[in-house]
Amino acid sequence: MLGIKDVHVRYGKAHALKGVSVAVSEGEIVALIGNNGAGKTTLLNTVSGLIRPASGDIVFEATNVLGASAEAIVRLGLLHVPEGRHIFARLSVRENLRLGAFVRNGDLSADFDRVFGLFPILKERAKQPGGTLSGGEQQMLALARALMAQPKMLLLDEPSLGLAPVMVEKIYRTIVEIHQQGTPVLLVEQNAFLALNTAHRAYVIETGNIVLSGPASELLANPAVQKAYLGGL
């Protein structure tokens, strides 16, 4: 469904991605793990059209989106929930959600019902400014806003970052539920244990290179991964 092939990204003289190849099929949650600065966010920003790569191919549902605008990629159904949430703090929760559906026309009632069913707290907070929500509630809002566009696939960048453990558990339960409803996910996480216990397959990226890939359960049991990312468990 998503094929990222031999993608190179440069920031001036810095070679941020060095021939990265990643694939996501229908029905999958695929994780990309690695340390800070490894290239995880750069890859998602490249796929979603925020960064133009030096070379490579990015194919989504048989359409090569390399060089396409971020808006065009959203209209194809590939939605990116960025690190840091980037909600509109002064707009209400409902207004944030409505903006998520900017690519669509018609009645949004069923979409509001869906996201409020997944995130009941957002229904309670519907008239509040987004900036008054807690960090976990803002992450819920960022996810819900992406769902308003009826995505065919989600790109999630560090959804657990800065959240309390109880909120991380809620967010990840919802990610699994969204996947079970039919939306594949490419998940970027620094919390490798969490990512590998959620995903079907995974890739490990180091300094812009994919160094390992395979079933998530195999990477979870890999001694090198355990030593580097799981505290030697």
Q: What's the main sheet like?
A: 6 strands, mixed
Q: What overall form do the CA principal axes indicate?
A: globular
Helix- and strand-based class? alpha/beta
In N-to-C order, the SSE pattern is EEEHEEHEHHHHEHEHEEHH
- The value of Rg in angstroms is 17 Å
Overall mean pLDDT: 93
Beta-strand content: 25-35%
Q: How helix-rich are the residues, as a percent range?
A: 25-40%
Counted by DSSP, the helix tally is 10
Q: Low-confidence runs (pLDDT<50, min 5 residues)?
A: none
**For the largest beta sheet, what order do the strands appear in spatially?**
6-7-8-3-9-10
Strand tally: 10
Cα end-to-end separation: 33 Å
